[in-house]
Amino acid sequence: MNKDLIIFAPFIEKGGIEKNIFILTNYLLNNLNKVSLITCDKNIGKKFKKNLKIISLNKKLLITNNRLIKNLSCLILLIITILSLNRKCVIFSFQSNLYVTLIAKLLGVRNIIRVAVYGWMFSSIKRIIFKLILPLSTRIIVNSKEMKRILKKKLKVKAEYIYNPLSTKDLDSSKNTKKKFFKDQKNLKILFLGRLVDQKDPFTFLKSLKLISNRINYEALIVGSGNLKDKITKYINENNLKLKVKLITFKANPSQYLNQCDLFILTSKYEGLPNVLLEAQYLKKYIISTNCKTGPKEILKNGKLGDLINIGNYKKLSHNILKYNANRKKLSIRNKINDAYKETKRFNYKINCKKYLKLIKKYL
After folding, report:
1. How far is 65 from 60, CA to CA, in rounded Å?
2. Which residue in 20, 59, 29 sits closest to 43, CA to CA?
3. Are 96 and 39 in contact (CB under 8 A)?
4. Cβ pair 321, 74 in contact under 8 A
5. What's the rounded Cα separation, in Å, for the pair 93 and 129?
6. DSSP per residue, 295-335
7. Alpha-carbon gap, residue 121 to 143, rounded angstroms
8. What pLDDT is stored for residue 61 in this prediction?
């Protein structure tokens, strides 16, 4: 191994993709000598091991929050870095895969890309572009069998699936949290955890809660941040849900909320392989999720390990919440939760990280 590994991730925010960047980068740092990260978010250094070389613009030059400018800056840094290493490097990209692939092809270096979300597939123009450029990559990794099938069927592109490695350190420590986030432990405790954006569709969640507001005793937490925050607050106030629904800004360790709920709900319009469902399974929480592409159906084994509903179907969601509340003490529900916990072995941290390492080593 005489080549450097360059990890490309211009935007490191608060989400599942970013969590995987932390997990995989730190694992690779333990097993490889020369690893660097190109990013425009320098304030995340504490989450990486000290031996990581972070390549970024000076903070004084990063005077904008414009994602296009940040992305362009990182792509320029990527070109400079490749040339400074005399092309003796391999690129592993989490974001901007098309641009990275073109740069790698033009400069004659190997690149591995990770395709982790489905959203771009809704655009016919993007599908055409991806179909033309993705095959130029050295290797393509996806995070689910379903995504692998979709790429092969719709784009005629071959990919290798490796599940997201489930890190349980924070999950285990969340069990020791003494602070109580739900006021009345007798109520049904419901959690929505995710970015407050259209993709996550928090209003399907809220509409379902409105339907059951006078039928059962429950408390609901919405934990997240995003551009829909003000609209969500307005909806809660206008629909007399203030006593039952609380909105909390996203925290560094959201698993502390997950550990204390009874029921976890995901209402996304699309996903990749949502880490939060894996975490909910590990903490033995019952799950109701939309059957969106991709991930939930695969994680929940077609509904054997939790409930699947159609995207946007808040009436069905409210029905399933009521059904779970009426049956949550039954053996069938407990068995379903325990079976889901056992299935988290598919996402074992060491097994899946080793798969990434083995693949990357082939090209170093």
Report:
1. 13
2. 59
3. no
4. no
5. 18
6. SHHHHTGGGTSSEEE-TT-HHHHHHHHHHHHHHTTSHHHHH
7. 15
8. 53
Task: Yes or no: say if 142 and 160 are a contact pair by the CB < 8 Å rule.
Answer: yes
Count of CB atoms situated within 10 Å of the CB of 94: 24
User: What distance in Å separates the CA atoms of residue 6 and residue 10, rounded to the nearest whole number?
Assistant: 12
User: What is the Cα–Cα distance from 249 to 68, expressed in whole angstroms?
Assistant: 26
pLDDT at site 81 = 96
Sorted by sequence, the CB contacts under 8 Å of residue 319 that are 6+ apart come out as none
CA distances from 151 to 92, 96, 139, 267, 294 (A): 19, 17, 13, 24, 12
Q: What is the pLDDT of residue 60?
A: 55
Burial class (CB in 10 A: 0-12, 13-18, 19+), 305: buried
Mean pLDDT in each 10-residue stretch from start to end of the chain (364 residues)?
Answer: 91 75 93 92 73 79 70 93 96 95 97 89 86 94 94 92 92 81 89 94 97 95 94 96 92 84 97 94 97 95 97 98 96 96 96 96 94
180-190 exposure pattern, b = at least 16 Cβ within 10 A, e = fewer: ebbeeeebbbb
pLDDT at 266: 98
Q: Determine the 3-state secondary structure of 55 from DSSP.
A: strand
The one-letter amino acid at 81: T
Give all domains of the chain, ordered by start, each with its CATH number. 4-165+348-361 (3.40.50.2000), 169-347 (3.40.50.2000)
Structure tokens at 228: 């829909």
Q: Count of residues for the chain?
A: 364
Which pLDDT belongs to residue 240? Answer: 94
CA–CA dist 320, 288 (Å, integer): 8
Order the strands of the 263-266 sheet from edge to edge. Answer: 245-248, 218-223, 188-193, 263-266, 286-290, 307-309
Q: Tokens standing for 97? A: 């895969």
C-alpha–C-alpha distance, residues 41 and 116, integer Å: 20
Q: In 3D, which of 134, 138, 136 has the Cα closest to residue 147?
A: 134
Which of 76, 72, 117 has its CA nearest to residue 94? 117
What pLDDT is stored for residue 100 in this prediction? 97
